[in-house]
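Task 17 of the worksheet. Students: predict the tertiary structure of the chain below and write it out as structure tokens. Keep your answer in the requested format; marks are given for formatting as well as content.
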Amino acid sequence: MQCKAYVKFDTFGTRVIIREKSSEVKEENVKVQGGIPQPALRRLPIYYRRLRAAVEAGVAYVSSEELGASAGVPGVQVRKDLSYLSLYGRSGVGYEARALAADLEDFLGLVNDKEAVLAGAGNLGRALALYKGFERYGLQIVALFDSDPSRLGELPNGRIVFPIEKLTNLVQRLQVQIGILAVHEESAQSVADTMVSAGIKAIWNFAPCKLSVPADVFVKNEDLACELATLSYHVARRKIAFGDRPASAAEPDPAAAAQVDSSRPDRQ
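Model answer:
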């Protein structure tokens, strides 16, 4: 039996999917972060980065099409995304770059600096700790932790790698709210438990596993292996579509080759 479905938003910003099957109507609530759908929320930082680039370049206005190009969506989607925040541009002009960047900074919580601790000082963990791009988004990794004694000590940027046993004390003393996990899969859950018990409320998880945390702790998973598999899929599909033979060099033009050959000193 076919059913019809349509979407609406209630007064609290919660998306409600209405499904009709004959005379039966079923409502299904889909949680929306802060009154905005998750796909739109994920695009906001991309818009913000494009706006910051415009401000630094001295550009006063940015169109929805320009913002959309940075996120791979059409201008109409940008306008819809920003409408969830009651942010609107000027017809024929666009959005004022500096003002919109400030609004997004406030909505995304980028105005105030945020401190984080990082567990796992291997190659990935060190790369994250040394990445300067986080500073623009107000994130400061104040300390790293590891169970391997050979990794303890000071990094080139002055950050210290401490024994993992000191994580709880430092998190509680500095009241850090964000934890970054860059540890092996087998130890990810136990380290996450330590973070949560210390007071961490948001975990950025780079370990390839699903964590079990209390309902009031937010987890953002970054499975790099899965992302690589997705990339591999697109490469494989491209080979199927365009052939897997490498593009061969163009055959040389005989006339051009003769001209070049005659210009050699031993041919004059």
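Marker's comment: Residues 38-108 form a domain with the Arc Repressor Mutant, subunit A fold (CATH 1.10.10.10). DSSP finds nine helices and twelve strands in the chain.
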